[in-house]
Amino acid sequence: MPDLRIILVGFGVVARSFAEIVESDGESLARRYGLKPKIVGIADSRGAAIAQTGIDLKKALGSKKDNGDLSGLDGIYHEGMTGAQVIKEADCDVVVESTPTEITAAEPGLTHLKTAMMKGRHVVCTNKGPLALAMPALIELAHHNEVVLKFSGTVGGGTPVLDFAKKCLEGSEVRSIKGILNGTCNYILTRMANESATMKDALADAQRLGYAEADPTYDVEGLDTACKLVITSNHVLGTGLSIKDIDIRGITDISVEDVKEALSQGETIKLIGGVAGGKAKVSPERVKLTHPLNVSGTFNAICFDTFPSGEVTLVGKGAGGPETATSVIRDLLEIRRAYAR
Ligand SMILES: NC(=O)c1ccc[n+]([C@@H]2O[C@H](COP(=O)([O-])OP(=O)(O)OC[C@H]3O[C@@H](n4cnc5c(N)ncnc54)[C@H](OP(=O)(O)O)[C@@H]3O)[C@@H](O)[C@H]2O)c1
């Protein structure tokens, strides 16, 4: 069984979790799935390392922990080398892109994806930005270059939302989609509903617990939900949406009184990303307390309205390093199956 040669562009929470799994569980991956990942390149924001014989992942993880960069990889480290340079210089089968999500120009992720596919490399992407902004063009580029572009981790973290909808609902027509796609907002709204916490206090707790970033705008203003909605809608319904097509309203103007009023009528307020009849929007909506979408805390839930089967709802954790790393493994397995040599 040949090695699957991989370049990791971005070596943060997700990529390091993936590297830890490969390092500690590599034998099991080979035995159970015939998957033998060999990391031949790693890039972060400061530089990169390349070794066609395979990078020592224990050393790479240790260097990142001790130095904040990959400089501990003596002899193979190149300070200042960019992700795009590594993709051009190192020989690989798959590029795993996990740099930060950015939605104005989707960089540097967009350049990494384009460079990789134009070089004939398959891509696994956990970064939502490029797909939220330019998914139809990227899919076209993948077809044109006869490579696979996978992005399971962009929606639902480790919960297989996209594959579930595409593969397990085959035979039913998905007519509309509604989801709670952002754990931070759901945590805040749950605290407001269960404990009458104010938005400010619930957000501060979310930040203290590491659920929300220091700058929580992207979550609470609905942008993260919108990115995931675009990707889900395009993948499952074949819409050609970009984030610019979405009406977006976040949760910042929701008060405890609004939530209490909903509760008095057997409902609660959730930030919903939904698409029906070709129209997509993100907004706070009332959800019946008895509906499966009424999940608490940082959980995500997504409800597919299907014909003739009716509503099917998938619930799971929407983020987390190890969880999202499992989505990378699923994507690699699919690439490996498609291109088994
Ligand atoms: N964490 C999750 O639970 C989760 C779940 C689903 C999807 N995602 C998405 O997956 C992506 C990665 O998430 P993460 O949590 O791993 O993020 P992260 O911890 O912030 O890591 C991002 C990595 O990208 C690197 N980077 C930044 N700019 C770069 C550049 N110009 N060239 C090369 N590398 C660059 C960073 O370098 P330094 O190490 O030098 O800073 C870091 O290693 C994001 O787009 C995120 O939205 C995350």
Q: Which kinds of small molecule does this entry bind, naming each only once? A: NADP nicotinamide-adenine-dinucleotide phosphate
How many strand elements?
A: 13
Q: Count of helices?
A: 12
| N to C succession of SSEs | EHEEHEHEHEHEHEHHHHEHEEEEH
CATH fold description of the largest domain: Rossmann fold
Unreliably modeled segments:
none
Describe the structure.
The structure is a single chain. This protein is an alpha/beta fold. It has two domains: 4-157 and 321-338, NAD(P)-binding Rossmann-like Domain (Rossmann fold), CATH 3.40.50.720; 161-317, Dihydrodipicolinate Reductase, domain 2. The chain contains twelve helices and 13 strands. It has helices spanning 13-33, 57-67, 83-89, 109-118, 128-144, 161-168, 183-195, 199-208, 217-220, 223-237, 256-264, 321-338; strands at residues 4-9, 37-43, 47-50, 77-79, 94-97, 122-125, 149-150, 173-180, 247-248, 267-276, 279-288, 299-307, 310-317. α5 runs parallel beside α10. The radius of gyration is 20 Å and the shape is globular. It starts with a strand and ends with a helix. NADP nicotinamide-adenine-dinucleotide phosphate binds at residues 9-15, 43-46, 83, 98-101, 108, 126-128, 153-154, 157, 319-321, 324.
Topology record:
Elements: E1 4-9, H1 13-33, E2 37-43, E3 47-50, H2 57-67, E4 77-79, H3 83-89, E5 94-97, H4 109-118, E6 122-125, H5 128-144, E7 149-150, H6 161-168, E8 173-180, H7 183-195, H8 199-208, H9 217-220, H10 223-237, E9 247-248, H11 256-264, E10 267-276, E11 279-288, E12 299-307, E13 310-317, H12 321-338
Parallel strand pairs: 1-2, 1-5, 5-6, 6-7, 9-11
Antiparallel strand pairs: 2-3, 3-4, 8-10, 8-12, 10-11, 12-13
Bound molecules: NADP nicotinamide-adenine-dinucleotide phosphate (NAP).
